[in-house]
């Protein structure tokens, strides 16, 4: 019974007292030394990269291997102070809770983070750690915005106030780029080999992006240093995947009530996890391949698989599902009508545009996606999936349409998804309730969508988003037919007519 559970704060002293239902580190954490510095210790990092390293240490606990690959987390933003406080209180320990579709919770205490530095309090401590020869990898989950890419030019946005401050001669670093470049300068001066910079952010070609932006930043400080970085520093690409919802108070309560763990900041996630990593390191690396990481020569096929199957399928379900009255992804993916549509898109339109993906059973992967989306415990909102569509549809779905048009392949489902976005952007659902359109281009999108009925091609005539698709007769026919059906019949009836 719940009342019989003795709730204890998570700490090294209590970690072995939570019972057989809770996995705990089997290795000696006092022997773990930091070999990786990680910027951006949030939910995803703790559910993904830190979990893999904890698994590696557990698997090698008998011989002490991998214990020199502990993580030193670094926070540079004001809001990271809370993570610093939790990490200090729990000596880096936290609970990762896998949420299975049947409601089963699978908790595991993760011990791979052995140090956490809050940079605003002691920037020199961060630089000292980065300059330490024991640090061979610096990893990043700093979000797309953390790379300071000018979205128009694709170059470094040096006008960013944080970057500008770090470029002042003699300035103490405050941002990630400032710390990484200054640490590389110190290592170069001391004759210490550079660390590998390993981006784990969910952006295509993340290693290429990190290399380009960091080197451009370094060039504004010291051209010779930038040349050295270009020659000597490795930036492997990676593809990462695991749905990691924001931790809710209910998650903390369930952990305490069911397992007796009082954790200041647990992490919840889905069962599925994937990490495809380019094997391009400047020095030593952990034996990631021993714990399920796919080490490959080229990440791009896996990126395209994710973009055109997972990401594009999110768009294929979110607008149509929302218009039909659903509000969560799992509701849509427990409806066979929508599942059949999603599988049809993936099989007949998304998959034909993909190169071979070594080591992946695509048919199994696609059905796994449906199972993941249908997990009621994750509770992914359609509103979240519908947000910022102007950054998503052009990158994820438009390339599929272009490839299929070029190869005379099917485009009807993709065209319907674009039409559903246009219908969603009108700002009212089929029940007459208002839709809050969240997008950096909201005003332009909503204004164009208001004319969908009398000017059905206005929405897709935005060449910044759709290029010349509006000039293609086959796309125009499929799109206008779908848009008219959404207006006249609604989303559900449109899918039923397509299936019939």
From TrEMBL:
GO terms for molecular function: mannitol-1-phosphate 5-dehydrogenase activity. GO terms for biological process: mannitol metabolic process. Its EC number is 1.1.1.17. Keywords: NAD, Oxidoreductase. Residues 298-486 form the Mannitol dehydrogenase C-terminal domain. It catalyses: D-mannitol 1-phosphate + NAD(+) = beta-D-fructose 6-phosphate + NADH + H(+). Residues 35-288 form the Mannitol dehydrogenase N-terminal domain. It is an enzyme of class 1 (oxidoreductase). Pfam families: Mannitol_dh (PF01232), Mannitol_dh_C (PF08125). Belongs to the mannitol dehydrogenase family. UxuB subfamily. This is Mannitol-1-phosphate 5-dehydrogenase. It comes from Kribbella flavida (strain DSM 17836 / JCM 10339 / NBRC 14399). The lineage of its organism: Bacteria, Bacillati, Actinomycetota, Actinomycetes, Propionibacteriales.
